[in-house]
Write a structure and sequence with these properties.
mainly alpha
């Protein structure tokens, strides 16, 4: 009798069994083949769609697409908020709105209070002869440390103060608390102090160990200037508030521009050092 022929797929095996998958078969490219170490056929190819370029999270699930820079949205929203408050106060001053009554009563109640020597000292912090040299020293330090663009940006912000404040003073023509003279809105001394000390803090913060102390010092100096101006009867409270909003918008733009300039400078520095030796 002739023996029953064995299947060709198992001719080399010791006994009968299931046919073995050949390496060239299509089943080697299925997901089940990943257990044998063979990746999916499309895994080794570069991604052809944005979805394929996503990074996976720690759990292995597809992550999101690379985020779009959102700093303009945050910056514009904050600047818009400050300018909205400034516009509201300016409208009240020009239209003789209902906020002027409480503002004038509060200003007259605070005028002349406190020690005159201390209030005079605080008010003088907003003088150009005091605030501008402080910013100039900070700009010189930044310039010597090769942060020259940041120094130029800070000086430009200081130059913008009179360009913004003087036309507003002429337009609003508001009378001062203890004088018949006009042109007291907004407070130029407050805006000068806020931008000068704030810009100096932005320039010096990278060079001090506790960088948070610089903006705190700028806020305290500007607050002292504002208090001195109101206590001496040089400005109404709304004059000071409007200058805080206007100077805050300028400083927000300055901070963002300066930080982006520093990031570009730091990103270019390693590339210069990685060249052939």
């Amino acid at each position: 009798m002739r023996e029953t022929p064995r299947p060709q797929g198992t001719a080399g095996d010791a006994g009968p069994g299931l046919p073995q998958h050949r390496s060239g078969s299509a089943s080697a490219h299925t997901t089940g083949a990943s257990r044998s170490g063979t990746p999916h056929r499309s895994d080794g190819r570069p991604p052809h769609t944005p979805r394929g370029a996503r990074h996976t999270d720690p759990t292995g699930h597809p992550g999101t697409l690379p985020p779009v820079p959102r700093w303009p949205v945050l910056l514009f929203s904050r600047v818009a908020g400050l300018l909205a408050v400034f516009a509201l106060v300016t409208w009240q001053v020009v239209a003789d709105g209902p906020l002027l009554g409480p503002d004038e009563r509060l200003g007259l109640a605070l005028a002349g209070r406190g020690p005159h020597v201390l209030s005079d000292l605080f008010a003088d912090l907003g003088n150009m002869e005091v605030a501008v040299p402080a910013l100039a020293c900070a700009a010189l330090v930044a310039w010597l440390r090769r942060d020259r663009r940041e120094a130029v940006y800070a000086v430009s912000a200081m130059v913008a103060v009179p360009l913004l404040v003087v036309p507003l003073k002429l337009w609003t023509d508001r009378q001062g608390p203890l004088t018949e003279a006009t042109g007291y809105y907004p407070s130029g001394h407050t805006a000068t102090a806020a931008v000068a000390y704030g810009a100096a803090a932005l320039l010096l913060a990278p060079y001090v160990r506790r960088s948070w102390m610089m903006p705190v010092a700028a806020v305290l100096l500007t607050a002292a200037t504002s208090i001195g101006l109101v206590l001496r009867g040089y400005h109404w409270p709304l004059d000071v508030l409007a200058s805080w909003c206007l100077a805050g918008a300028v400083l927000l733009v300055l901070r963002e521009v300066s930080s982006r300039s520093r990031r570009r400078s730091s990103s270019r520095t390693p590339s210069c050092r990685s060249g052939p030796s």
